[in-house]
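Design request, tokens follow.
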């Protein structure tokens, strides 16, 4: 055969480590597994309404520096314990970023921040960090964006998200139907909630899903369906955290036989990407909680050690503990946010 008709626009860079090889390097210990299984059960009870606790998914927009993320986790872990009677605090550990057009796609894709795309190193850094954080007794949350890389870390994740840009994607719904953790679906970037309601329903069904197995063999999986899919209101062209928007969304869930309990993202479209506005959104949510709202199962916040964001220059992020993607609340505001949520919970 002398003529080639495919692989004309791609070239091999390197072989990918297998999930099994990576988990041999960074194994899931019994302590970590207890953190994961305990948090998943807690979150499931919150989503069904069996528990009155508030789920709080909080942490950086993206992880770019494992040392800074671990320093943040070491601050957050004692607060998870302190507020455990009313809040279920889970750290955002986002390693894959969906981009509106192009941009840095996260620690797994480009761990050195310089376009060298050392994916095997990125996977190792991500898995090691998840082990370290779960070993602190702090559960972790992530967005599942890539169809392959989830297999390397899913055993260490207590809560998953499908993002606004992929909620309508059939393969992401199929992946969610297979995941062992509860999975939230964001409304669309334009504010469309219907696609997320459809996604929760689709993911609750069994599917045939093709994915690499833990040894990297392409495999046909039969999924069971995920009974803990739920809606995340993240705003769109306009915010959707107000009482009326939440009531309408809950009605939409109930109308199709789903639990009318949902998560509100304080950031993204709900804060119109102004990080400080997350506190204003939180005040409104606290007011709704004090008035006895049964629809708000949880919130998500973007928070790091330093407030705001920074640009990466020549592959370097100068400020320790500051986001390189969306701007985040700083630590002092994050502490205030958690105290405010705790006080609002009856
Ligand atoms: O949460 C992060 C961003 O909002 C998301 O990745 C999109 O980013 P972009 O619009 O800067 O590409
Ligand atoms: C990308 C994110 O959110 P969204 O999908 O809502 O834009 C995120 O939470 O990091």
């Amino acid at each position: 055969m002398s003529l080639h008709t495919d692989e004309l626009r791609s070239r091999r860079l390197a072989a990918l480590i297998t999930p099994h090889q990576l988990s041999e390097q960074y194994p899931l210990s019994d302590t970590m597994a207890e953190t994961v299984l305990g948090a998943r059960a807690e979150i499931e009870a919150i989503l069904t309404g069996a528990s009155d606790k508030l789920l709080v998914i909080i942490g950086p927009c993206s992880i770019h520096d494992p040392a800074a993320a671990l320093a943040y986790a070491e601050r957050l872990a004692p607060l998870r314990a302190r507020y455990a009677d009313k809040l279920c605090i889970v750290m955002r550990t986002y390693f894959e970023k969906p981009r509106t057009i192009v941009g840095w796609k996260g620690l797994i894709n480009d761990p050195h921040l310089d376009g060298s795309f050392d994916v095997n190193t990125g996977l190792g850094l991500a898995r090691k960090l998840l082990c370290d954080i779960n070993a602190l007794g702090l559960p972790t949350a992530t967005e599942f964006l890539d169809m392959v890389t989830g297999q390397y870390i899913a055993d260490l994740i207590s809560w998953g998200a499908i993002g606004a840009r992929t909620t309508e994607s059939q393969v992401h719904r199929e992946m969610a139907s297979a995941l062992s953790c509860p999975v939230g679906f964001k409304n669309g970037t334009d504010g469309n909630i219907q696609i997320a309601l459809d996604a929760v329903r689709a993911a609750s069904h069994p599917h045939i899903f093709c994915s690499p197995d833990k040894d990297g063999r392409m495999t046909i999986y039969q999924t069971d369906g995920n009974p803990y899919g739920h809606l995340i209101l993240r705003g769109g062209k306009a915010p959707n955290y107000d009482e009326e928007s939440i009531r309408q969304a809950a009605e939409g869930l109930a109308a199709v036989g789903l639990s009318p309990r949902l998560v509100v993202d304080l950031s993204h479209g709900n804060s119109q990407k102004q990080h400080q506005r997350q506190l204003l959104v939180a005040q409104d949510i606290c007011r709704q909680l004090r008035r006895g709202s049964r629809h708000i199962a949880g919130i998500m916040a973007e928070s790091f050690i330093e407030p705001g964001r920074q640009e990466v220059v020549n592959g370097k992020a100068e400020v320790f503990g500051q986001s390189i993607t969306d701007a985040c609340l700083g630590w002092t505001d994050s502490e205030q946010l958690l105290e405010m949520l705790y006080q609002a919970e009856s």
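Comment from the thread starter after seeing the answer: thanks! The longest strand covers residues 296-302.
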